[in-house]
């Protein structure tokens, strides 16, 4: 057992050990010794996708996780409930994820081959349950236990410890000490409902609510509906309601580029665009050129200007809205795209272009979310309009000890799950002292640089405060952990794999090929990723199309057979044949009615 990689030896937490440095073998740090003596206890707040990854990573590193989850089950946002829990995100019944299964899985646990590429939330829950069962994570979760307060202990500057106060369902409060805390409470829980921007809403005669409270469309059959906001919630809800409602008006103050799940040749589009080679290539091009290239592609599918969706900003300046169906609904007139709402008048809605739509029964505010950390004192992680200053979106830089990590507070252009997992892999190694954070000045510089880059690239909006590009961010973290794939090394040792890593989709398995947490199934998972994409699509044996090529080859085969037969029957008079080759042609004509010509 290597003490530095964490020998798990459970011990009473309050057991105190006094070890003189003189006793330590010279290569061991005090932390290593404590690693042998007792596993550090880590409080994981939240049992959603990020929380599950944290429990698993703690166990991998020999730490002792205790996860607190307010609700009675795992899954966080992905567990559908007709009546939302107060502290938990809430989704609509038809929700289908917009990140494909090979791109969203945990890096050492591929999603079963037969699962569809874009899964309904119920299947996502099935997958999370398999993950939790396989790695025996649930036994580390205390359900129906809410974290009320997390405060640094008086000796925090040298112990790095936290007091965590919880409340169980029956109102029982408890305080425990932890060596580190992982905050996994999500950032799509609290609705952003900017009613102050909508004069007259208080007198609106119909019903209005935030997209978090939307569940299904039945109630709105034959009604007039306005959906405000064109993020993925607004897009999905407008499409679904348009199949039931009399008319849906989709109001957007800025417009949006519309991406789709179904990429070229039906391949999941995130598997086409999240490729190292493509990112590398685009990185070399001027930003304006990459934008134009992508916008041209999107306009080929439908003209964004013609459909009233074209924004003033470029395609890479906005978090993508993904909807394969919206253009279809616009073309069929069931969704009308409108500008921003100017005011509400009784049951009418006045838009900024002066148009008025009457008899509106429902307004859905699909206007996004806000987040906060109510259990932390505001100076630990100050948040203002969804802006936070965290080193690599994880660590509050001002803490004397790096024992608090926020996991999953990112909006990747890709799936959150593998990113949360990678953050957790790094954080657990930081807690153990195996990875070090830089000094506060360097962290602040990095934070500022990221803020500037985001401000330069993205439209200024509350929804664009924690944006990360999937591959560069994963690589950045992977480098810290020591698991970033080395393409050059792979080219020498395993060229087939190297080509897949470089030119194939950047699936999470790439970060399990070597280094801490290496998984021996990673190589095979990469080489078989397209099989798992194809598997759920093979639901009917399709006949081979009768191509021109095959009918030509049939003609050729029959002709050869006829020629050989004619030769066989003429073998007795070969000399006549040599003297008069056209007699052979007559013999072939007699055998097969082929369109042979003598010209
Ligand atoms: C409609 C919608 C669709 C989305 N689709 C995608 C997608 O296609 N792909 C993608 O990658 N991401 C998507 N997201 C983003 C989504 O946030 C992530 O997929 C994911 O759910 C984040 O997981 P999480 O564990 O960080 O947070 P959550 O899933 O929100 O889990 C947080 C957990 O913390 C618990 N909790 C909160 N406070 C406390 C407390 N004080 N004490 C104890 N427990 C607490 C909650 O009960 C909850 O279980 C979507 C978001 C929305 C709103
Ligand atoms: N199927 C899926 O997988 C799926 C479905 C839903 C959501 N999601 C994810 O969930 C997250 C949240 O998405 P979301 O759509 O709920 O929120 P969002 O991405 O934050 O979008 C909010 C929308 O509301 C608009 N808005 C905000 N304030 C406004 C105001 N005062 N007046 C007018 N418009 C305003 C925004 O416009 P501006 O752009 O002008 O600010 C934007 O169009 C995202 O990560 C998204 O990808 C995924």
Give your account of this protein's structure.
- The protein is of the alpha/beta class and 599 residues long.
- It has two domains: 41-189 and 371-534, FAD/NAD(P)-binding domain (3-Layer(bba) Sandwich), CATH 3.50.50; 194-364, 3-Layer(bba) Sandwich (FAD/NAD(P)-binding domain).
- The chain is built from 20 helices and 22 strands.
- The chain has a five-stranded parallel beta sheet, with helices on one face.
- Strand 1, helix 2 (49-60) and strand 2 form a beta-alpha-beta unit.
- Helix 2 packs parallel to helix 11, helix 11 (416-431) runs parallel beside helix 13 and helix 18 packs across helix 20.
- It is globular and about 90 Å long.
- It binds flavin-adenine dinucleotide and NADP nicotinamide-adenine-dinucleotide phosphate (NAP).
- Residues 95-98, 188, 194, 197, 211, 228-234, 236, 252-254, 319, 340, 366-369, 411, 461, 463 line the site of NADP nicotinamide-adenine-dinucleotide phosphate (NAP).
- NADP nicotinamide-adenine-dinucleotide phosphate (NAP) binds at residues 95-98, 188, 194, 197, 211, 228-234, 236, 252-254, 319, 340, 366-369, 411, 461, 463.
- Its main location: endoplasmic reticulum.
- This is Flavin-containing monooxygenase.
- Its cofactor is FAD.
- One of its GO terms (biological process) is lipid metabolic process.
- It is found in: Endoplasmic reticulum membrane; Microsome membrane.
